[in-house]
Amino acid sequence: MASRMRHATLPSAGRLFPAPGGYYYVDSEWGTLKEVLLASPEHLSLVPCNAVSIEAVRRGLASCSTRSAEQHRAMAAALTKAGVDVHLAPAMPGMPDLAFTRDTSLMTPWGLVGLRPGALHRRSEVDVVLRAAARSGVPTAGRVESGQVEGGDICLLRPGVVVIGVSGVRTDAAGAEALGAMFKIRGWTVITTEIDARLLHLDTHFCMLDQNLALGCTERLDPAFLAEVAGLGVKVIPVHLDEVSALGCNVLALGQRRIISPGTAPRIDEAVRRLGFEVITVALDEFTRCGGGVHCLTMPLRREAGSFGRT
User: Which residues constitute the domain of residue 57?
Assistant: First the structure.
């Protein structure tokens, strides 16, 4: 069978905007995933730029290029088997974190938005992704030019509601305001919530499973945020702090009650299975020691439109 994995290519604009069958770009974290952008981990290295990677370096850990490539291929294969069209951007020298495509940009219902990572060594990654998209005809919807904001701190909770986590380190108030303005002008509700910088990103301790269910570290999330989420009808499955540290909460919803998990928190995986989900586990320890899991490594390009209606 021919591989559906394409090197350094993105779908044509005609397929994406709009696509047949009522598809948009992306308007939720849980609509059935159709296309995703990955980046080759060829130059992956353990950069001590966050709490997890700093601890990994302190423990004497390092990156293995062979093993990281194997794990990345296994993740891509799992996505392909699940019916997701995988697009692979090439590795770039001097960009050790490019594989974590989630942080560079955000696909919205109106096109691709370039973000502004907090770590200076990651700023050039945005240009790589936007140039690749432009060459393939994918429309862009602007770029965050002030403050700093990373994709791991953004949750498209449902069509019309976006959550932005603000730690002051990866995403700050100025960056959240700049991104939020792009949503507000289109009628979306923007929820900002303060998060603990030691937990890196919002998606390490809050991830949507489907439209009314999420994983969340309730002991560290702001009670006001949890109340707001509950008011929207979203139930949160509690995640323990040690499971957050293992990136066990950093999962990718595929839609149709399926998720990909790094398998580092068996209790979480089993709890989700008991709720009727298919949990696909992929070993990603070469990446989790750098501070990112499957959610961080994947940037959705197209999902089926959320069932809450058009936005």
Answer: 32-303
